[in-house]
Design brief:
The protein is elongated, with a radius of gyration of 17 Å. 50% of the residues lie in helices and 0% in strands. By secondary structure, the protein is an all-alpha fold.
């Protein structure tokens, strides 16, 4: 088998274990990595095991073992989404914190369309993630998407007053 093996869906054995999750998955991930699995091998959509663990799974344990073993935290999928972006999108604040503090993720890296993790957290009303990105990650609070919308504009438009207040007081948003 190749390093990581092919799971038949354009992914690897590592990606399959992360997608399925469940009991013993963290140990299986560790074993596959020790066996030489390609930690950053993407599936058909370009998503890596780290992005799946951070987003759909929201598994802090999986993310930690992948980050500790050298996963590229800033690698983007076919639409430009990084692990931090999908964690912010899903509101997984503990995972986002791990990616920012231990993984040193680029908090301002935008996906296609200019959407940053902070813009998405502001849109979805994920206050804890927004606070983390602003205070710990020092995200650019005035960085707009390709349509010119800033995090403050989006938070206000969606009625997320706590995030709007955070952006003005902590982030000094314009």
């Amino acid at each position: 088998a190749s390093k990581g093996g092919n799971a038949g869906d354009g992914g690897t054995c590592l990606l399959t274990v992360v997608r399925r999750g469940g009991a013993g998955s963290v140990e299986m991930i560790d074993m596959l990595l020790r066996g030489g699995a390609d930690i950053d091998a993407p599936g058909k959509d370009g998503r890596t095991s780290l992005a799946v663990a951070a987003g759909a799974r929201g598994s802090e344990e999986m993310v930690r073992v992948l980050v500790v073993n050298g996963a590229d935290v800033n690698r983007a999928d076919d639409e430009g989404r990084t692990a931090l972006y999908v964690a912010a999108q899903m509101g997984h604040s503990e995972v986002a914190a791990l990616l920012v503090t231990e993984g040193k993720a680029d908090v301002d890296k935008a996906k296609n369309g200019g959407w940053t993790p902070l813009l998405f957290a502001a849109q979805k009303g994920h206050t804890e993630v927004a606070a983390l990105l602003v205070t710990e990650g020092k995200a650019d609070v005035d960085k707009a998407n390709n349509n010119g919308a800033t995090p403050l504009f989006i938070a206000a438009q969606k009625g997320h007053t706590e995030i709007a207040a955070l952006l003005v007081t902590e982030g000094k948003a314009d």
